[in-house]
């Protein structure tokens, strides 16, 4: 079994967070652009969904977040 750190990863086109390869994406990994169904649905929206706060951009020199909790 491989460890998650050894799997390929990409940056989500909507939220900007990194996400790792999943088995269900094995056939079309090259076309995967979004980390989740929620980000895929928000791709064309100019306004975030009601109740969802917009993602703040980090200050220059700030340490970037590398994973979700």
Automatic annotation (TrEMBL):
Domain of life: Bacteria
Pfam families in alphabetical order: DUF2256 (PF10013)
Chain segments carrying region Disordered: 41-69
Composition-biased stretches (Low complexity): 48-69
InterPro entries, sorted: UCP037205
Protein name: DUF2256 domain-containing protein
